[in-house]
Amino acid sequence: MESPPPVIISVGTTRPIHYGIVLYPAFQALDAFGPLEILNIVSTRHLINLSIIASSKEPVSTFCPPGDHNPLTSQCSQSVVPTHTFSSPPADLEVLIVPGGFGSREPYIKETVDFIARVYPSLKYLITVCTGSLVVARTGILDGRRATTNKMAYRKIAEWVPSVEWVPKARWVVDGNIWSGSGLSAGMDVVLAFVEKVYGKEEARYVADAMEYERHTDPGWDPFSKAPSGDGAGS
Amino acid sequence: MESPPPVIISVGTTRPIHYGIVLYPAFQALDAFGPLEILNIVSTRHLINLSIIASSKEPVSTFCPPGDHNPLTSQCSQSVVPTHTFSSPPADLEVLIVPGGFGSREPYIKETVDFIARVYPSLKYLITVCTGSLVVARTGILDGRRATTNKMAYRKIAEWVPSVEWVPKARWVVDGNIWSGSGLSAGMDVVLAFVEKVYGKEEARYVADAMEYERHTDPGWDPFSKAPSGDGAGS
């Protein structure tokens, strides 16, 4: 019922085409779907192929088992279908997104951690959202590098992995080819900043407008670094 | 590794427990997952059971077939697993969320439209995001009522369903028990406003902080009502 969006075809550029995201049980929904919405929109204007990679092709759920993070045993979760597995990943992966979530602290994500360690040397870019930076930190890749994370979980994570130069006040941090966003909704800002770098300012503006999202363009903007809720509960 | 979040148990209130969302092919990812992230967080503090309702239990994809909305034939989409079907919906549904997306204009969502028409009389609240208001408008429920929608699609939708009192400049609109949000990321603001009404101001603040989201609390805030991209391409 309406005219098609303007198309900008990438020809002869080195823009990435092959994107991937890893999912593990108890990932955080918005950590994944903020960035993925951005890729979905960019993919209508530039060729993008997305792989959703997990330990098997069984749907992966955001569900937190009853316990500290689900004390009322609410049944409120979403399951997403992977397209690839860690043992049979896509060829030519160029950009990998790593979301956070309560699963990020769990021993059961070892396969995810190992996959990231294995694939990182061939990536052009690695993007983390929220405690996705903890998942990557568990590989050792972030040792001595600057990164940020969820601000409600910040202090615990900084204690747990002191070998990373954690940045306490940042919407996002770029260190080499690793882009790390703060908690949850910051995933949209770090990926829009990435879109600006790779596809240009106008493209980032178009995507933010299409999302009706008032983006933060200053990587130092971070009121949540002093949120009164402070420490501990962050996903 | 960290202390559990504070729990506020709802006792003796009329707060809803049974939430649902409808999904249909080519729904918009953030329209669904902005609100769902909010419910996921609230569900750690108040009992919430979420049903994901679709025409069958097959995963529902955001994928837009090659054409106007996917001119480059990108393979960039996500599939979500329903918990219920339109023919066997959950009992006691109190709040229903209707996301938008390119599917909202399609004849193939008739089952979704019919389900909403059938279930609306027993709902406490109906929440739409983006062109989710078009899906609901197709039932006739919005005739003579105020609602808003995606601003890049606004004019076409207002032409298509003139029986609705469309509000051209609004982050969200409340008319009776129908809450309609503007495009994509506005879904977070309308649902946070809903959380504030139902669970209180402090709860909405907690959730926005946990999401590291700078929410818009003014329903009249809407810079996208005059986005230069204007008309047509909105999802």
Automatic annotation (TrEMBL), chains A, B:
Which segments constitute the DJ-1/PfpI domain? 25-196
Where is the secretion signal located?
Answer: none
* InterPro entries the record matches: Class_I_gatase-like, DJ-1/PfpI, INH-QAR
Q: Which Gene3D superfamilies match?
A: 3.40.50.880
Q: Per its UniProt record, what CDD domains does this chain match?
A: GATase1_PfpI_2
Q: What is this protein called?
A: DJ-1/PfpI domain-containing protein
Q: From which organism does this entry originate?
A: Glutinoglossum americanum
What does the organism's lineage look like at the top? Eukaryota, Fungi, Dikarya, Ascomycota, Pezizomycotina
